Amino acid sequence: MRILPKHLLQAWVERLRVDHRVVAPRESHGQYIFDEITSADELVLDYHSSVLPPKKYFLPPREDLFTFNAKTMEMSPVIEEIQPTVIMALHTCDLHAIQLLDRIQGTGHVDQHYQARRRKTTLVSIECMEPCMAQAFCKSLGTLSVPEQFDVHLTDLGDRYAVDVGSDAGEALIRGMGFFWKPSDADYDRFNEVMAGKWPNFDYRLDCDVTDLPNLLGASHDSALWDEIGERCLSCGQCTKVCPTCYCFDVVDEIDLKLEKGKRVRVWDSCLLEKFAVVAGGHDFRNSRANRLRHRFMRKGKYQLEAYGLLGCVGCGRCALSCPAHITPIATLNTLNERRQASPGESA
Amino acid sequence: MTTLLRETLDHSSIYMPTPARIVAVEQFTELEKWFHLELPSGFTIAHQPGQFVEVSVLGIGEAPISICSSPARSNGAFELCVRRVGKLTEALHRLEPGSMIGVRGPFGHGFPIDRFQGKDIVFVAGGLGLAPLRSLITEVLDERGKYGRVALLYGARTPKDFLFPDDLKSWAERGDIECHVTVDRPTDGWDGNVGVITTLLPKIDFPARNTIATVVGPPVMYKFVLQDLLAKGVAEGNIWLSFERQMKCGVGKCGHCQMHHIYTCQTGPVLSYAEVKDLEEALS
Question: Locate the 4Fe-4S ferredoxin-type domain: which residues (chain A) (predicted)?
Answer without folding.
Answer: 222-254, 301-333
